[in-house]
Every structure is written in C-alpha cells, then in structure tokens.
Amino acid sequence: MVFCLVVKCGSTSLRDKSIHFYRVPSIYNRKGKLNDTLQRRRNQWISLLKREDLTENKINSGRICSKHFITGQPAKWSDIDNPDWLPTQNMGYNSINQPAVSAQERFERAKRRKIKDPLKKSLSANTAMVSNIRKYFVFYLLNSFNNCTF
C-alpha cells in the first residue's frame, strides 16, 4: 500500500484507484551519477512537504499523489520552467507562494512562442526578399518606360 506524504491528504493506493502516485525524485540519474538538478529538485520537494517527521525510509516508501500537481503529474526533471516541476497544489497548508492554475497556461503560451519564433524569422526574411523583388521590378519598369518612344 502506498500513501501520500502531503499533510492532510490521506490518499492511498488501495482506496483511490483513479489517483496516480509519484516518488520523491532521486538525486542520481539513470546511470547512477549524482545530478545537481535532481538534488535541487528533491530538496525542494521535501521542503514543500513541511514535515518534520520525514525520515529517509518514509521518503523512499511514500509517494506524492496526482492531486498536488496542476496537470496531475510531475514535469520531466529537465523541464525546470514547468509549474509542475514541483508539487504545489493542495499541500495541506496555506501558502502565498502557491502558483495558480494559470501558471500552467503561462507555461504553455511560452512554449508555443518558442515554437513560433523560427517561423517569424523565416517570414521576415521572406518579406524582405519580396520587398527587394518589388523594388527591382519597379526599377525595371521605370527604366523600360523611359526607353520607350511614342
């Protein structure tokens, strides 16, 4: 049986079948090497729990349920800007620093902007090329008009 480590949550794997449970991140990557980003993430997850009774055994055997993430699951460890990089929802205490659901929307908009940037650059290059073609065409027409005799 797995239980949620968050204060006042009470979710368990036996009773709550629709809820997913996630381990507190390890400080080692898949190759067994110590990773500073993972270490920082693990420390932040543990500090957000605000529990003084946590031992290494409880951290390793306990989980954090999907209720505590905006999208219902934690972000990938490399996606530091994602609001779900840390559990922030329904943490069992009142906090002014809890990001709203709109944090996920801001993250998605920023992601879309990063995808659109290459398009904007290519469009501006194409616009400049079309502008140069127009200038050349007008120059050609004016010169051919000047050389005409009536």
From TrEMBL:
Where is the signal peptide, in residue numbers? Answer: none
Q: Which GO terms describe its molecular function?
A: DNA binding; zinc ion binding
Q: Which UniProt keywords apply?
A: DNA-binding, Metal-binding, Zinc, Zinc-finger
User: Where do the THAP-type domain residues begin and end?
Assistant: 1-90
In terms of Pfam families, this protein maps to: THAP
Q: Which SMART domains match?
A: THAP
Which domain of life does the protein's organism represent? Eukaryota
Q: Which SUPFAM superfamilies match?
A: Glucocorticoid receptor-like (DNA-binding domain) (SSF57716)
Full protein name: THAP-type domain-containing protein
State the taxonomy lineage: Eukaryota, Metazoa, Ecdysozoa, Arthropoda, Hexapoda
